[in-house]
Specification:
This protein is mostly beta strands. The protein has one helix and four strands; from the N terminus they run H-E-E-E-E. The protein has one domain. The longest helix has 11 residues.
């Protein structure tokens, strides 16, 4: 798929999960259904250029560790 179509598809069909900050700027994490378990995609947001692009997609959980610091569980 062309990059512009990938981005549109992720933003339309994906579920936003979290964000993190990197040297390049903000990176948003989305989950996308794919029949079974689905997969994750990262979208980089460039605030200077007012643009976004798909950075990577993955189906394993290892890259999710980069988002763990931003998760807060409700207090009981």
């Amino acid at each position: 798929m062309p990059p512009a179509f990938q981005l549109t598809w992720i933003l339309k069909k994906g579920t936003y999960l979290a964000r993190r900050w990197a040297e390049e700027g903000m990176i948003a994490l989305y989950h996308l259904p794919d029949g079974g378990r689905g997969f994750f995609a990262e979208v980089g947001i460039d605030s200077c250029k007012q643009g976004a692009n798909v950075l990577r997609s993955f189906s394993n959980s290892e890259p999710l560790e980069e988002y763990a610091h931003g998760i807060r569980l409700p207090e009981q």
